[in-house]
Automatic annotation (TrEMBL):
<feature type="transmembrane region" description="Helical">
    <location>
        <begin position="121"/>
        <end position="139"/>
    </location>
</feature>
<feature type="transmembrane region" description="Helical">
    <location>
        <begin position="151"/>
        <end position="172"/>
    </location>
</feature>
<feature type="transmembrane region" description="Helical">
    <location>
        <begin position="35"/>
        <end position="53"/>
    </location>
</feature>
<dbReference type="InterPro" id="IPR002293">
    <property type="entry name" value="AA/rel_permease1"/>
</dbReference>
<feature type="transmembrane region" description="Helical">
    <location>
        <begin position="200"/>
        <end position="218"/>
    </location>
</feature>
<feature type="transmembrane region" description="Helical">
    <location>
        <begin position="438"/>
        <end position="457"/>
    </location>
</feature>
<feature type="transmembrane region" description="Helical">
    <location>
        <begin position="404"/>
        <end position="426"/>
    </location>
</feature>
<feature type="transmembrane region" description="Helical">
    <location>
        <begin position="270"/>
        <end position="303"/>
    </location>
</feature>
<feature type="transmembrane region" description="Helical">
    <location>
        <begin position="230"/>
        <end position="250"/>
    </location>
</feature>
<protein>
    <submittedName>
        <fullName>Tyrosine-tyramine antiporter</fullName>
    </submittedName>
</protein>
<keyword id="KW-0813">Transport</keyword>
<keyword id="KW-0812">Transmembrane</keyword>
<keyword id="KW-1133">Transmembrane helix</keyword>
<keyword id="KW-1003">Cell membrane</keyword>
<dbReference type="Pfam" id="PF13520">
    <property type="entry name" value="AA_permease_2"/>
</dbReference>
<keyword id="KW-0472">Membrane</keyword>
<feature type="transmembrane region" description="Helical">
    <location>
        <begin position="86"/>
        <end position="109"/>
    </location>
</feature>
Length: 468
């Protein structure tokens, strides 16, 4: 609308920071010790910035609702557009299991029974209860509207700031902890240890911090002077995210004893910092409850978000009428219930994989691989559309000619290939006996998720298209 208020440069930086500010990924960053600085810079420069800049050009040039699916469809055809929307939906199966697993860990601390946080069967049960709970609530109520922004403020921003403040206070008081992940620093610690290839798998988990970076591009049309301000906002946001995450990651690496990091347990560093700084343990229970609220609000947002975009794809004729059903509130009932069933099945990983740490990392990596395929399709589409639609008005454009777009696209493709290769290396925290199973699982999960989309598209029928 002509009179809609434009976002300021600082407004867009704030929105982007809000989207990626989360305490959940801090342990995955911290477990890599000093190497996290290298990993974070690689994730930001090779992964986040290229995707964000390409997405900005695409979203300002092609303003229809649908984002990546629309860009890919216009560039390389409807089939790959469908694959894109399908992958953005199915990655949620793995991502939401990972997010829901933290509910069990946090709940153990809220009720003062912390040993439950490492009990696989307890985590599995809580994933089922929490995800089905928010699913059924969302069928009756608009939970995101009810929770509003306060869910993010209580569950994400306050805990993140508190973690950074406590971590810095601990570091100022104690210096470098000789028992922590930052002890005995050598210059070589800043680079990955190539003699332990399994440690490279953490790069995939760290890259996941920036997964979804294309979403902020939806605001590119609504910012003052996008040609100048959007790249400044994206670069500033990424730099700030790197700084905040590294402060949190380094202080947590300093506080947690070597070999004791619990990836799905964000409460662990709060406990260590509070005990050392003389803060009453009730504070940890309160912080755990706050983060728990944030996680449940995030689960609620994801229950309906991807399914709403998938039902549009279904109504275009890509899926049978069975998938096009809505309840009386217009909620895509088939998608919502189907994703709850599949998420329940994926969560069985918490019973099959030896410990909670390993299951958490394995599922994080699966989600990252599926995102990488989407980003490869976006990179191909960004270049293709320069030639298919050269006269398209692009309020934000990467370079005057096509050279800059080729460079950014190839950089993005390189990061995607590296990420997928690294993701297929069995993580060093997995037992040796599980290594072969890990590779088979990642390959099969990826092939099945892409293959199902291609098979559905191949056999789709004209009669599937919903009549207006």
């Amino acid at each position: 609308m002509a009179n809609s208020k434009k976002l300021t440069l600082f407004g867009l930086i704030g929105i982007t920071m809000a989207f990626f500010g989360t305490v959940r990924s801090v342990p995955t960053l911290a477990i890599t010790g000093w190497t996290q600085i290298f990993y974070m810079l690689v994730a930001a420069v090779l992964f986040a910035l290229p995707i964000a800049l390409m997405s900005a050009e695409l979203s300002t040039g092609f303003q229809e609702e649908g984002g990546p699916q629309v860009w890919v469809k216009k560039a390389i055809g409807e089939k790959w557009g469908f694959v894109t929307s399908w992958l953005l939906w199915v990655q949620m199966f793995f991502g939401m299991v990972m997010v829901a697993s933290t509910v069990g860990v946090l709940f153990g601390y809220v009720i003062n029974v912390p040993h439950l946080s490492s009990n696989n069967f307890f985590i599995f049960a809580v994933i089922l209860i929490s995800y089905w709970g928010v699913t059924l609530l969302n069928l009756k109520f608009d939970m995101v509207k009810i929770a509003g922004n306060w869910g993010s403020i209580i569950g994400v921003y306050i805990p993140f700031v508190v973690l950074v403040v406590l971590g810095l206070a601990y570091m100022f008081k104690n210096g470098i902890n000789p028992a922590g992940y930052l002890a005995n620093f050598k210059a070589g610690d800043l680079l990955p240890n190539l003699s332990d290839l399994g440690s490279l798998a953490y790069l995939s988990g760290i890259i996941f911090i920036f997964a979804g970076v294309e979403i902020s591009s939806v605001h590119a049309n609504n910012i003052e002077n996008p040609k100048r301000n959007y790249p400044i906002a994206v670069i500033a946001s990424v730099i700030l995210l790197v700084i905040f995450n590294l402060i949190a990651g380094l202080t947590v690496a300093n506080g947690v004893p070597m070999g004791k990091m619990e990836l799905s347990n964000i409460t662990q560093p709060y406990m260590i910092f509070c005990a050392d700084l003389g803060i009453p343990s009730i504070f940890v229970n309160i912080i755990s409850a706050m983060i728990l609220i944030g996680v449940l609000v995030q689960l609620s947002a994801w229950v309906l978000g991807p399914s709403k975009s998938m039902i549009k794809v279904a109504e275009d004729g890509n899926l049978p009428p069975f998938f096009q059903k809505r309840n009386s509130k217009g909620i895509p009932i088939t998608f919502v219930l189907l994703q709850a069933i599949v998420i329940s099945l994926v969560s069985v990983m918490y019973i099959v994989v030896p410990d909670v740490n390993s299951a958490f990392l394995v599922i994080t990596i699966t989600t990252t691989i599926l995102y990488c395929i989407v980003y490869a399709l976006i990179a191909i589409s960004a270049v293709r559309l320069r030639y298919k639609a050269p006269d398209m008005n692009r309020p934000f454009r990467l370079g005057k000619g096509n050279g800059m777009m080729w460079f950014v696209s190839l950089l993005s493709m390189l990061s995607v290939v590296i990420t997928i290769i690294v993701s297929l290396i069995p993580p060093s925290i997995l037992p040796a006996s599980f290594s072969t199973g890990y590779v088979i699982y990642q390959v099969v999960a990826t092939v099945v998720m892409v293959g199902v989309a291609l098979i559905i598209y191949k056999f789709k029928k004209p009669s599937w298209k919903k009549s207006d």
